[in-house]
Specification:
heteropentamer, A mainly alpha (359), B alpha/beta (239), C alpha/beta (234), D alpha/beta (385), E mainly alpha (288), A: mainly alpha, two-stranded antiparallel ribbon, E: two-stranded antiparallel ribbon, 11 helices
């Protein structure tokens, strides 16, 4: 489906989507000027991180068909490298981030050489196993990672060019812009991939590995290429998270739950499309935040739909926040059973059937 | 000049010999037919030639280069491309994209690849279906798509595995024409086929396999007259 | 006995069967020939309900089997020996045969039928403890047919029983099929081996790209010019 | 539906919450769900009791509870929301060391007073922060009081340390090692185990082979019970079992008397703690929530009491609240609480630690001797067959 | 040396329970080709069931399996019929996420109902042991090992000697051929999922007296179950039995000589090695 759009794009870039995209980007760049709520910015930063992770995974999982459920490994390697260099070697994150990227790519190539020999469900299990090995190793190598205690940084050193301080990282705004820029970069990268030989080869591998092989596609090379691109951005997301949140430990940045969450962002949005991970992130991050802080219950009560002192109101107020993971689980089950192509696929189908009706 | 030489190739699975001690050569520019009853080891031989299996014994020499141990992608790059008995369209990609994947073997430019792809799509006459999803094509068009896709890799030697399987006589006729056209372009071909009439028409030379062994080799006339072949292939001598 | 009327079937966008009409009378051997991919196996899969039925009717002894589940079709007495044998590889010969008589009606006659298939295929008796997956192609084909017979079928559907077998074996398989018919089992045979299969058939159908293009007596089809050209390469 | 969505967006991004007149608005961050939730529940309950008592004192608290599921990023989001959207005067929480560490940074940035009730990792109050206060004792306090007891009652020469490899376990073990070495006790065995393994027998067998005088363990309750059960199985019988708070000081542990009798554990508060109101609070808690409280509940209770009073006195001003916390002195169920700067700590309460020993299936306060209810049993009497 | 044998023995005993978990998963995978990520959570349900039977009705955990087995069977059959069955033809990654979702729903429902408190089931024999040649053998573990052996034997008998059992194996080996034998494969799937769940539940019951119970306990076992199943060869029951014991021993012995924090790494490295060099598993025979 996406190939079809790309065919059109090469012949002549459609103007309307381009204008809309430009408008959206400009709006996002101006947003911090109008929105002063740091809480809103915080949510936006989390959304950016989620978009970066989802889009990065999408290149490997959505386009190349290699469903890694171990992407926390690259996230964690990025976060740890940057922070270890900052904390123990006093290397500014501006450089450390790239060391993180290099480390994540190197990790990816090692993992790839192991896991890409395996196909299908076994690949999924192998990717989980590798990520778990990373997590447990990080726990058990306190000399390197400070083990279970994790690494806490209190200040990110200011970013300077020459002697001019560009930003001192004291507010959310620099993180907002960094997140936005990386998110745009990963989306741009996805587009570039989609409209290049790489993209064709990735999709060929996804559709049929043997056929792809027979058409002169070096499977190992191209799968690793997809993984490398994916690892670069996942690692950047990890570094950004580490610097922004300030604290990392194996239980947060190398967790299996994180890997699942990355995949979920894509599946819920729509796999193998540029928009999918964005939709997934924009839906999931605020939704889970709203559930966590019990805003849904509060909103229901404030809107007058549910009376606060009614049994339902009390129940919602008391229980709904406890139940957020439960609701998350239910959402997952529902999406997979009833919208296997994600929200994007569901909307497309809806439009397609409407068009048929009117026609 | 021999473009492809099969030298005493054997392939074992467990204890079973799927190919044993097969030798023959395919000369530049010819169309070689490969026939034999089901299970005779034709597809296994294709797999050994194109790098899907390493031969257990013997050598495959293509263009004076020993091919043993090369992977399918390297084999394709060297100019030997195959189709699949059971077609393998890249289902969620369009027809033109499918063929472009083949063409990208020779170029890095999408524009160039698109041109090359269009050329081959014309050869197989699928111009009408450019943007259709490959997975939605009927069987006959899928087979053509597969031929176009391998042609786009610009092979010196094309290996066709039952491209007429499942086609009606009219469609088969189109494929026969296609094979002959491709032959005229100077591309050497090796064709596995069940359709006897077709194989007799297109082949310059035929190798017959039976139970993994080479039973006979010769031009179509010789093969039709060969007692052993009739016995093995048509079932009984009184056919 | 079996009546197929106006059967149409598609795999997704791909239409495989077009208005197929076909009939099998009790006691007959009916052969459906056609090239690889003509829709022969799909036809059998429709009868056995391995796929969701397309439009059209399939009745067996006046029971509409398009409404049955796959296992209920077997309970009606319609048993298929599938293409590629599909032996249970990790089960012994005996276990495979026992599975053949899984349905309640056949379970009662298990011992009787076991004797019957062992007389038909003495080779299986010799190998009764061997795992299905370790047997040769010919033995597997025998086992597949024997397993089908264990279900005590009224109508036996055979999908390409000669596939991948040596000429000698092919010959004996067809002899056995003829023998089975003599024992009172009606047979619907699907084959690429046009010559052998039409020779033992009472009637035959030629299927091309999902359509029935010819139907006639077996011998008559063998002598049909179109059949000769298209399938026998003569 | 549209109305609801619009409202939800409004709630999330735009509307700053309106403060009610006459009340003080406070935040509470806790692990309500997630793996730490069982202990988190104690904190929630403790805070609930504190709110009641504050009300009795005429201080109406508008409390906003936030769940951080034990994860630092979620905790930051919660802090962010409380500090910038809900505009609370002060925040109590979060529970775990990892989340507390993350939130302390934000407290500094947003200048919101934060009282950490129960996290014991030393670093939290060693970063030069002005806005983070800690009621809880540190890991060093836990180990220190136990080794004081051990060296007073006996002459142990060697010690084995077994801890879970979590933030809490590792920092506890680290402090224990430092203090042991200071006191001239040789650490002959150190191992961090992965939480949640059903079988520690082989590890314990290895520990037993080093024949230590003291066995020092840092674990939550489930593993604490498992470790003691399996110690009994393999017949590990040192001079004393020392448990650093947490799992070893929970009633559930004491109830398993076959395996818990004789085990020492350090704690910040007990029913018999020598401070006003301890017994009363204990009873009230049991009555209201149907189970006995841990010291976490008491720490959370006291933290909220302090925050509530300080904030009310400061009239809802954050800076003034901070000043009140820095200079103030409170007397509650944890005895006298002052936030002091010492030994590299800032705004840290010098915790008075207690040691309990399980005797007949009940935690009895045995140390310091002046506050002891029962006499400590020393050395470990061995396993009953 | 004592330390070595001690760890070997406890590894084997724990391994017996692991085997039970692995066999359950392998049967489910064999018949349905679905990787069940909710397996550990099913085990968790079994643990809670055992716990409440013990605390409310004072039924000994080892006796209560008589109740646990049929109840867990029904529960598994229900899960299969209502959820898994709808995704039988879905992409494997979607199936994985579906079962992850089901697992989340299960563990969080339990948490809402019973809080996330650790529940400890203390029997009179929870910490009893007998000493044999200087090695202590945990009594409850030994008993559960014996029960495991008995259940495994009974399962073998069922799968190899009864028509129903053979039909399940047949469905696992070739679903389509099984349909042609008149086997109702949908029913077999339900039964297989039921058996898998019953085995997981039983494993939960058997470790309850020596372990602890909380809503998230399942995740520990889900990952282990995969390793065991792949190690033995997906779908191979003998393999899963062997794999379980092997993992038990590897954890136990590796924990002593490499460090108990590294247990999981040892297990996962073993897992990757098998995937790489013998992808069909130690006892697997499938060609691909």
């Amino acid at each position: 489906m996406n190939m079809k759009t790309s065919t059109a794009d090469i012949r002549g870039i459609a103007t309307l989507p381009l204008l809309l995209t430009a408008a959206a980007i400009i709006l996002l760049f101006l947003l911090p000027k109008f929105v002063t709520s740091t809480y809103a910015l915080h949510i936006m930063i989390l959304i950016f991180i989620s978009v970066i992770m989802g889009s990065a995974w999408n290149i490997l999982g959505g386009y190349t068909g290699q469903y890694s459920v171990g992407h926390a490994a690259y996230f964690g390697v990025g976060a740890y490298t940057t922070k270890i260099l900052l904390q123990y070697r006093h290397i500014a994150p501006w450089y450390g981030v790239w060391a993180g990227v290099a480390a994540a790519v190197a990790t990816g190539l090692v993992i790839g050489s192991i896991c890409f020999r395996i196909r299908g469900p076994y690949f999924v299990l192998a990717s989980i196993a590798v990520a778990e090995i990373f997590r447990v190793s990080a726990l058990n190598l306190p000399g390197l990672t400070n083990g279970a205690e994790g690494i806490l940084i209190t200040e990110v050193p200011p970013f300077k060019i020459g002697n001019t301080v560009i930003t001192d990282f004291m507010s959310k705004v620099p993180f907002y812009y960094i997140g936005l820029v990386i998110a745009i970069a990963v989306i741009l990268a996805t587009r570039l991939v989609q409209n290049s030989k790489l993209g064709y080869y990735f999709q060929a591998i996804r559709e049929d590995q043997d056929a792809a092989h027979s058409l002169g596609i070096n499977l190992t090379l191209y799968k690793n290429a997809a993984l490398a691109i994916s690892a670069v951005f996942t690692s950047l997301a990890g570094s950004l998270y580490g610097l922004y949140v300030g604290f990392i430990d194996p239980g947060t940045v190398l967790d299996l739950g994180l890997s699942v969450q990355i995949v979920m962002t894509c599946i819920i949005g729509g796999i193998g499309t540029i928009l999918g991970p964005m939709i997934g992130a924009v839906v999931l991050v605020p939704f889970s935040e709203a559930l966590r802080s019990n805003m849904i219950a509060q909103a229901l009560i404030d809107s007058g739909l549910v009376k606060e002192d009614s049994p339902l109101g009390t129940f919602l107020k008391e229980q709904l926040s406890h139940a957020h993971v439960l609701i998350y689980g239910i959402l997952l089950v529902v999406v997979i059973l009833f919208m296997p192509d994600g929200i994007l696929g569901f909307i497309r189908k809806l439009f397609a059937s409407k068009r048929k009706e009117t026609a | 000049m021999a473009l492809l030489e099969i030298r005493r190739v054997s392939k074992f699975f467990g204890g079973l010999a799927a190919n044993s001690d097969i030798s023959f050569e395919v000369r530049q520019g010819m169309i070689m037919g490969l026939i034999g009853p089901n299970g005779a080891g034709k597809t296994t031989l294709f797999n050994c030639i194109t790098g899907y299996y390493p031969p257990s014994r013997g050598e495959v020499v293509f263009n004076d280069k020993r091919m043993n141990g090369l992977h399918p992608d390297a084999v394709c790059k060297l100019g030997m491309a195959r189709t699949w008995q059971k077609v393998r369209p890249l289902a969620r990609m369009s027809v033109v994209d499918n063929v472009m994947v083949g063409a990208l073997c020779r170029t890095n430019s999408l524009t160039k690849a698109r041109e090359m792809a269009m050329e081959q799509i014309k050869v197989v006459r699928l111009e009408q279906r450019l943007d259709a999803r490959a997975g939605s094509l009927p069987i006959g068009e899928r087979k053509k798509l597969e031929v176009a896709r391998v042609l786009a890799t610009q092979p010196k030697l094309l290996l066709l595995d039952e491209v007429m399987g499942g086609l009606n006589p009219a469609e088969s006729e189109e494929i026969i024409e296609l094979i002959l056209d491709v032959g005229k372009l100077g591309i050497t071909q090796m064709v596995i086929e069940h359709n006897m009439r077709a194989i007799m028409r297109v082949s310059d030379r035929i190798v017959v396999l039976n139970s993994g062994e080479k039973l006979a080799e010769g031009n179509p006339r010789e093969i039709v007259a060969n007692k052993a072949v009739i016995q093995a292939y048509l079932g009984e001598s009184d056919a | 006995m079996l009546k197929i009327g106006n059967l149409n079937f598609s795999y997704g966008d791909l239409k495989v069967l077009w208005d197929v009409d076909l009939e099998v009378q009790e006691g007959e051997i009916v052969t459906v020939v056609g090239a690889n991919g003509a829709g022969k196996s799909t036809l059998l899969k429709n009868i056995s309900r391995l796929v969701k039925p397309g439009s059209g009717s399939i009745t067996f002894n006046n029971v509409d089997i398009t409404k049955c589940a796959a296992h209920e079709v077997v309970e009606q007495g319609v048993v298929q020996v599938p293409e590629g044998r599909k032996i249970f590889p990790q089960m012994t010969v005996i276990e495979n045969l026992r599975m053949g008589s899984f349905i309640a009606s056949a379970r009662k006659k298990r011992d009787l039928n076991m004797d019957r298939v062992f007389t038909l295929f003495p080779r299986l008796k010799e190998r009764e403890k061997q795992l299905g997956g370790t047997m040769s192609g010919g033995e597997q084909q025998m086992l597949a047919i024997a397993r089908g017979l264990m279900a005590d079928p009224k109508l036996l559907l055979l999908d390409e029983p000669s596939l991948g077998l040596s000429p000698l074996l092919v010959k004996s398989i067809f002899e056995i099929i003829a023998e089975i018919r003599k024992q009172g089992v009606t047979i619907l045979l699907v084959e690429q081996n046009v010559f052998q299969s039409l020779r033992i058939a009472d009637r035959g159908y030629v299927l091309e790209t999902g359509r029935v293009v010819l139907k006639d007596k077996g011998e008559a089809l063998l002598n049909n010019e179109h059949v000769k050209k298209a399938y026998l390469g003569l | 539906m549209k109305k609801l969505v619009a409202l939800l967006l409004a709630v999330m991004f735009v509307l700053p919450a309106v403060a009610l007149a006459g009340t003080v608005k406070l935040g509470f961050i806790n692990s309500i769900t997630g793996p730490e939730a069982p202990i988190g529940e104690n904190l929630t309950n403790g805070v609930t009791l504190a709110i009641e008592d504050l009300k009795a004192k005429g201080i109406d608290v508008d409390l906003i509870k936030e769940d951080d599921t034990g994860k630092p990023d979620k905790s930051l989001a919660a802090f962010e929301k409380l500090a910038t959207r809900d505009n609370v005067v002060g925040i109590v929480g979060p529970y775990t060391s990892a989340t507390a560490n993350a939130d302390a940074k934000l407290a500094e940035r947003y200048k919101v007073p934060l009282i950490v009730p129960a996290a014991s990792k030393e670093e939290i109050t060693r970063q030069g922060f002005k806005w983070t206060f800690r009621v809880s004792g540190t890991t060093g306090d836990y180990a220190g009081v136990l080794l004081d007891l051990a060296t007073t009652l006996g002459k142990p020469k060697t010690m084995a340390i077994l801890n879970e490899n979590t933030d809490f376990g590792v920092s506890g073990a680290k402090s224990a090692k430092e203090i042991a070495q200071k006191k001239g006790i040789k650490v002959v065995f150190e191992e961090a185990y992965s939480k949640g393994s059903p079988d520690y027998r082989s590890t314990l067998a290895k520990l037993k082979a080093t024949n230590p005088d003291l066995v020092f363990m840092v674990s939550y309750v489930a593993d604490a019970i498992l470790l003691m059960r399996q110690s009994r199985e393999i017949g590990l019988s040192p001079m004393a079992f020392l448990g650093a708070g947490a799992g070893f000081s929970v009633a559930q542990f004491a109830k398993e008397k076959e395996i818990s009798n004789g085990v020492f554990s350090s704690t910040q508060w007990t029913e018999e703690a020598p401070w006003a109101g301890s017994k009363v609070l204990f009873k009230r808690y049991v009555k209201q929530f149907g189970k006995p409280p841990t010291y976490h509940a008491a720490c959370a209770y006291e933290s909220m009491m302090i925050m509530g009073q300080a904030a009310a006195a400061a009239g809802g001003d954050r800076e003034k609240t901070r000043e009140a916390l820095t200079t103030g002195k409170w007397n509650g169920i944890l005895g006298e609480v002052r936030f002091q700067d010492y030994d590299g700590y800032q705004n840290q309460r010098k915790a008075v630690m207690l040691v309990e020993q399980v005797q007949n299936g009940k935690h009895e306060t045995v140390w310091p001797l002046k506050d002891a209810v029962k006499k400590p049993i020393w050395p470990f009497p061995g396993w009953k067959k | 040396m004592i330390v070595f044998f001690q760890s070997l023995i406890s590894g084997i005993l724990i391994g017996g329970v692991y085997a039970l978990i692995g066999i359950g998963l392998t049967i489910i995978f064999g018949v349905m080709r679905v990787i069940n990520f909710a397996h550990g959570d099913i085990l968790m349900i079994g643990m809670y069931l055992t716990y409440f039977l013990f605390t409310l009705f004072h039924i000994d955990p080892f006796v209560s399996i008589v109740i646990t087995i049929p109840l867990m069977f029904l529960f598994g059959a229900f899960l299969q019929k209502v959820f898994i069955n709808r995704a039988l033809n879905a992409l494997p990654q979607n199936q994985i996420l579906l079962t992850i979702g089901i697992g989340l729903v299960m563990s969080n429902t339990v948490m809402l109902a019973f809080t996330s408190d650790y529940k400890i089931l203390t029997t009179t024999y929870s910490s009893s042991s007998v000493e044999i040649l200087g090695i202590s053998v945990s009594e409850p573990l030994a008993v559960s090992f014996a029960i495991t052996v008995a259940i495994t034997a009974a399962l073998y008998w069922f799968l190899y000697k009864t028509d129903m059992g053979q039909a399940i194996r047949a469905t696992a080996q070739d679903r389509e051929a099984a349909q042609l034998m008149g086997i109702n494969v949908k029913r077999m799937s339900i039964i297989a999922f039921g058996i898998g769940s019953a085995l997981a539940g039983t494993a939960g019951a058997l470790i309850s007296p020596t372990y602890y119970i909380f809503p998230q306990v399942g995740s520990v076992f889900t990952l282990k179950a995969f390793v065991i199943t792949v190690l033995g060869g997906m779908g191979s029951i003998v393999g899963a039995t062997l794999g379980g014991v092997l993992i038990g021993v590897a954890e136990s012995v590796g924990g002593v000589y490499i460090g108990s924090g590294w247990k999981d790494v040892i297990v996962f490295v073993l897992f990757l090695l098998v995937l790489l060099f013998k992808p069909s598993g130690l006892l697997g025979t499938s060609k691909d």
